[in-house]
Predict the 3D structure of the following.
Amino acid sequence: MTAMTVTVLASGVFDLLHYGHIRFLEEAKRQAGPDSRLVVIIARDRTVRRLKGRGPVIPEDHRRALVEALEVVDEALLGYEDVDLEAVIERIRPDVIAVGYDQDEIERRTRRIVEERGLKLRVVRIGRFGKEDLNSSSKIKGKIVENWRSRP
Amino acid sequence: MTAMTVTVLASGVFDLLHYGHIRFLEEAKRQAGPDSRLVVIIARDRTVRRLKGRGPVIPEDHRRALVEALEVVDEALLGYEDVDLEAVIERIRPDVIAVGYDQDEIERRTRRIVEERGLKLRVVRIGRFGKEDLNSSSKIKGKIVENWRSRP
């Protein structure tokens, strides 16, 4: 890595990795070109439990290893338990922050930090891919439960 | 790719991609060294439905795209609906075929074809990784159903 490498930062839970995740990450990297470095922050189990009332199905270390095993991802790191966006930006020093279609709160907080601190970074919103049912971890879980309920 | 590239072939359903899958594929590739080419055959929806009585949760084109998005995988292809191992071997011309700990039937059929046709290829059995609960798609599904049943 040279000093000129552009770093893109994305984040998420990535419980039950699906095709929508791949498209999101590919699009995030595309924002800064093929030579950029894509770093992904993986939400901690405790953070998800606190915010959603229930933890992810897949433990954080497995979620992290799976995301890092993707060709498009250069590095995947576990986040801070208290979702300290300023500390993450300080540590990764991204040129671009990519936020997903369902990351309103993260986008709002990121833009506020960027404005308050006068940071030179671009916040990019990545659209949703298709309307297909299985581009969402919760819909995948719904289908699994439905299969179980209708078992012979 | 030169004529000297060693090709490793692996196969599976890869419904709900998990850490055990990654370890299996990495170990498969390791059998033939870092310069080898890893080709993965993804079981068709109809094949899984026929053999297990129920199709996968994730459709075949998404399962294929997800496996191909892994850094360790060079190419992922949908299989033949009738699981024609001879046709697959003819098409891919692998030097090594890696079989998973739960692929007894595939191992048996592969070894028979290799013997009958006098093929110069190595069949390698890849062990299971850890005894952790979440290295199995069916255990992940079980946990999702359990979460749903105990919802508040």
The interface with chain A takes residues 16-19, 22, 53-54, 57-59, 62, 65-66, 69-72, 134, 140-141, 143-145, 147-148, 152 of chain B (CB under 8 Å).
